[in-house]
Write a structure and sequence with these properties.
- The protein is α/β, with parallel strands linked by helices.
- Helices cover 47% and strands 10% of the residues.
- The chain is built from 14 helices and nine strands.
- Strand 5, helix 7 and strand 6 form a beta-alpha-beta unit.
- Helix 5 runs antiparallel to helix 13, helix 9 packs across helix 10 and helix 9 packs parallel to helix 11.
- The longest helix is centred in the first third of the chain and has 23 residues.
- The radius of gyration is 21 Å and the shape is globular.
- 41% of the residues are buried.
């Protein structure tokens, strides 16, 4: 779920933009976050995910392929970052997520049997599960598309933030705000859901645009440091301490960290309230997470035959539609990627 910072991010630090405003920028995308969004959003009206003739779910592949083509066509340079082994501190959060998915799956079946279509779709979305086979075939598809991906040793958002801090990417891309705690200078949200989206339980649609958040501008307006922001996150609740400290929302947590200039003193106070985890360990993890430093970001020309093999022959996608999208991707590669991939810093404007 990630840390909830939405209510305290100042307007001066966030900006709604058109996709074309991100043209030329490398964005390190949280792959699991994106894939989960595709699994959740790309479904039949009753909530059933897209499947091939063998009953295998394909919603994630559909979203990954067509959304990435759209991003590249707009001039973005996406690099997908995959999670590695989660830290032990995250076990409780993962167990709670699994329990929520199981409960949602049970409610989905009941709603579907009752003919409650809207309710069924809501629970179906909440029951989405990303399994290892889906992850591996997503990597295969990205290879066929010529889109680079990076394997993180642990947390994908930590890796994306590291890449942005080091200058290998302009920003991290995710719906969650965790990459800000990990120190990404910028966060781009809504890249998986840009466009018209239906409001829950309403016959209304809204236009969703990408949103950029500048970490330094945010810290300056809030009058805190990144270290204090991490403490704030621990109070509110992160994936490593679900629920945080009782009684603390984003605004009360902001007041608290402002009153403690020394993060260590604040953590001492918090330690008395958190019985299951050590806030100092969480704090240190956000400051110095394990990251992969031996990666290579290289865009390659799409292999249309390999794309067809995966999507058309293996998963029954429409050949005509896949080939047209693949050709758009190849054209975009030749126009936007090939000429300038020798120097990453040339992509920043």
């Amino acid at each position: 779920m990630g840390v909830n910072l939405r209510d305290i991010i100042p307007d001066q630090a966030r900006q709604e933009v058109e996709l074309k405003a991100l043209r030329g920028y490398v964005i390190a995308l949280d792959a699991y976050n994106m894939l989960y969004q595709f699994l959740s959003a790309i479904r039949q009206p009753d909530g059933t995910p897209l499947k091939d003739s063998q009953g295998r779910i394909t919603s994630h592949l559909s979203g990954l392929f067509y959304r990435t083509v759209n991003l590249v066509e707009e001039g973005l340079k996406p690099v997908y970052v995959f999670d590695g082994k989660p830290p032990e501190m995250k076990r409780k959060e993962l167990e709670e997520r699994a329990a929520r998915r199981k409960e949602a799956a049970e409610k989905y079946l009941k709603a579907k049997e009752a003919g409650a279509v809207e309710e069924a779709r809501k629970y179906a979305q909440a029951s989405s599960e990303l399994v290892s086979d889906m992850v591996e075939e997503s990597k295969r598809l990205l290879d066929a598309m010529g889109i680079p991906w990076v394997q993180a040793p642990a947390d994908g958002e930590a890796q994306a933030a590291f890449m942005a801090r080091r200058g290998d990417a302009w920003a991290a891309g995710s719906q969650d705000y965790d990459s800000l705690l990990f120190g990404s200078p910028r966060l781009v949200r809504n890249l998986a859901i840009t466009g018209k989206r239906k409001l829950p339980n309403k016959d209304e649609y809204v236009e969703v645009k990408p949103e950029t958040i500048d970490l330094n501008a945010m810290l300056k307006v809030l009058g805190i440091t990144r270290e204090q922001l991490i403490v704030l996150g621990i109070l509110v609740g992160t994936d490593f301490d679900p629920g945080g400290v009782k009684g603390f929302g984003p605004k009360t947590a902001l007041s608290f960290v402002r009153s403690y200039k020394d993060p260590n003193k604040a953590l001492e106070v918090i330690r008395a309230q958190l019985t299951d985890v050590d806030p100092f360990k969480i704090y240190e993890y956000f400051l110095n997470p394990p990251v992969n430093q031996q990666f290579k970001v290289e865009f390659k020309e799409p292999n249309v035959d390999a794309i067809k093999e995966i999507l058309v022959k293996e998963h029954d996608f429409s050949e005509d539609r896949v080939v047209k999208a693949a050709e758009r991707l190849r054209k975009s590669y030749r126009e936007n990627l090939r000429a300038r991939q020798s120097r990453l810093d040339a992509w920043f404007g």
